[in-house]
What does this fold into?
Amino acid sequence: EVKLVESGGGLAQPGGSLRLSCATSGFTFNLYDIKWFRQAPGKGPEWVSSSAYDGDILYADSVKDRFTLSRDNAKNTTYLQMDSLKTEDTGLYYCATDNGVRGHGTQVVVSP
It folds into this structure.
């Protein structure tokens, strides 16, 4: 069974940092792209970043230069380091495979 489990969310102040994790199982991790999305209250999903199986990493303009995505193929896990957080980064963050399997997400709240 394919599983993705996010963790690391919480409350942060503007300018602060959080590190999210996406632990996976049930598939050959190093052969798949992993994508991160977020959904703010009352809004649709927004793509945040992608980690391709070949090492390529992409970011949405809204998080470029603030967020850093990495992957550890030995642990079947990706990490989203979020720095210089803004209130507009608030939302449910979740990771997903290329074929649409996703985790339940982890909540991030950025508030003074």
User: Anything to note?
Assistant: The radius of gyration is 13 Å. The beta strands are 3-7, 10-12, 18-25, 34-39, 45-51, 57-59, 67-72, 77-82, 91-97, 106-110.
